[in-house]
TrEMBL record:
Gene3D superfamilies per UniProt: 3.40.50.2300
Organism: Streptomyces boetiae
Cross-referenced SMART domains: HTH_LUXR, REC
SUPFAM superfamilies hit by this protein: C-terminal effector domain of the bipartite response regulators, CheY-like
Protein name: Response regulator transcription factor
UniProt domain HTH luxR-type: residue ranges: 151-216
This protein's record includes keyword DNA-binding: yes
Annotated keywords: DNA-binding, Phosphoprotein, Transcription, Transcription regulation
Domain Response regulatory, chain residue ranges per copy: 4-122
Keyword field contains Cell wall biogenesis/degradation: no
C-alpha cells in the first residue's frame, strides 16, 4: 500500500510542487490538499492519511494548533505530522514538536530529502534534521537550562546506557549512527530508545531530544 499523504499549505503553487515531487514516487500517493488548519482537520477526518505535510503559518488555524489537534498527547491515532518550516519560523517549530509533530523539514529541502522524510515519518520514526536542530537549540540557548539545575527525577529512572542513548538522540543521530558510536547493534539501540520513551512518558525521539535539552542533560554546543 502506498503512503497516503495530505498536503497542507496556504500557497497553492507550493502544494502543486510538492504533489509533483511526491506523485513521481511509486510508494507515495497524495490523497488531498488543504489551505489552512481547519481544512486540514476536516481532511484528516475524511481521508485518514498516513502523513500530513503541514505548513506553520496559515489563516484561520495555524499548523501548530492543527498538529496539536491531530497528534497531541491525548491522541493515539496513526496519523503522523511532518512540519514544513523556514529558518525565520524556528520558534514555531519548537511549539509544533511539543504539540506532537514527528519532525520538521525545510521548505527549500531537496526533493529527495522530502521524499525520504515522508518515508521515515510514515515508518514511525522521527525526522530530526541535525543541522536544523543545532540551529534551533543555539537560538534558544539562553532560555534552556544551564545544566546546574536539579536533574529531573524522571532521569533517575534511566540506566547509564539509556542516558548515553538519550544524549545521542538529542544530537540528532539516527539509530544506525548511535549503534556505530556505541559499538552495539541497531536492534539494541532501538530497544534502548524504546525504554527511554516509555520511562520518560514521551511520544517519540523528537520529544526525547527536546526533553534532553530542557532538562539540562544536554546543552547547546556540548
Amino acid at each position: 500500500m502506498p503512503i497516503r499523504v495530505l498536503l497542507v499549505d496556504d500557497q497553492p503553487l507550493l502544494r502543486t510542487g510538492f504533489r509533483m515531487i511526491l506523485e513521481a514516487e511509486g510508494d507515495i500517493a497524495v490523497i488531498g490538499e488543504a489551505g489552512d488548519g481547519l481544512q486540514a482537520l476536516d481532511q484528516v477526518r475524511a481521508l485518514q492519511p498516513d502523513v500530513v505535510l503541514m505548513d506553520i503559518r496559515m489563516p484561520r488555524m495555524d499548523g501548530v494548533e492543527a498538529t496539536r489537534q491531530i497528534t497531541g498527547p491525548d491522541k493515539d491515532g496513526p496519523v503522523k505530522v511532518l512540519v514544513l518550516t523556514t529558518f525565520d519560523l524556528d520558534e514555531y517549530v519548537v511549539e509544533a514538536l511539543r504539540a506532537g509533530a514527528s519532525g520538521f523539514l525545510l521548505k527549500d529541502a531537496p526533493a529527495a530529502e522530502l521524499v525520504q522524510a515522508i518515508r521515515v515519518v510514515a515508518a514511525g520514526e522521527a525526522m530530526l534534521a541535525p543541522s536544523v536542530t543545532r540551529r534551533l537549540l543555539d537560538m534558544y540557548a539562553e532560555k534552556l537550562p544551564s545544566g546546574e539545575e536539579q536533574v529531573p527525577d524522571a532521569l533517575q529512572t534511566l540506566t547509564e546506557r539509556e542516558v548515553e542513548v538519550l544524549k545521542l538522540v538529542a544530537r540528532g543521530l539516527s539509530n544506525a549512527e548511535i549503534a556505530a558510536d556505541l559499538f552495539v547493534s541497531e536492534t539494541t539501540v532501538k530497544t534502548h530508545v524504546g525504554h527511554v520513551l516509555t520511562k520518560l512518558g514521551l511520544r517519540d525521539r523528537v520529544q526525547a531530544a527536546v526533553f534532553a535539552y530542557e532538562s539540562g542533560l544536554v546543552r547547546p554546543g556540548s
